[in-house]
Specification:
The protein is mainly β and about 240 residues long. About 10% of the residues lie in helices and about 45% in strands. The chain contains one helix and 18 strands. A five-stranded mixed beta sheet has the order 5-7-3-1-9, with no helix packed on it. A five-stranded mixed beta sheet has the order 2-10-8-4-6, with no helix packed on it. A four-stranded antiparallel beta sheet has the order 14-11-16-17, with no helix packed on it. The chain is elongated, with a radius of gyration of 29 Å. The N and C termini lie far apart (about 95 Å). The relative contact order is 0.14.
Length: about 240
Amino acid sequence: MNKFIYTMIAAVGLSLFTSCDFDEDLDNPNYVSFEENSANVGVDVGGTSTYDVTVYAANVTGADRQVEVVVEDATTLAADGYTVPSSITIPGGTNEAVLSVTVSDVDLGLTGKSLVLGLKEGNGLYSGDGLAISVNRTCVGKEFVVDFAFDGYASETSWSIADSDGNVLVSVAAGTYADGATSASRSLCLSPGTYTFTVGDSFGDGLTYPNLGSITISYAGNVLTTIDGAYDAGTSVEVSF
């Protein structure tokens, strides 16, 4: 009787062991996904950056597997602002591969754009969520900076920046800053060129009460111009760098 029990236990154990080996050697890719679902990539003004993301499969097979990469409709980055491989190959003997994506400063503007990627399903293959890459300009050491020294009523201040074609790139409405604030600073990544800075005051007395304020505009640490706070309802200055 005891011999029969031991024989049954051995048979069940062998069955489980064989079953596990079979599961690890499935030929069907089953499921693939990106390592992450979101990422931020910085690009120098006028430059290009490369971003690497790992793609994982749910299992390991002995043969190479090719998965199609799709640029989704939600993408706002210009078509000539990115280079994405049409597919990625997961080599046999592993369940991962690295996808390299190149993005460039093409119409990124001051708020940046997005590149949304997906892995195409089909023929028994299922995929996880897509990858949304936020692409923004970086300009360490080359920032265009606007510094405000307020009077006592910062809420009255509004301002904007327009390029040489008259396109408004940044617009800040009155009420953005709180009364009592003594200062504020805004750093922007602007391409070299000519810009018009316009400031307004909703009360019509500029930055004059109870203190005389000012606005300093600089680029790459160098002061381009300083605006005296006595500009009444508003004023505009042109700066080039």
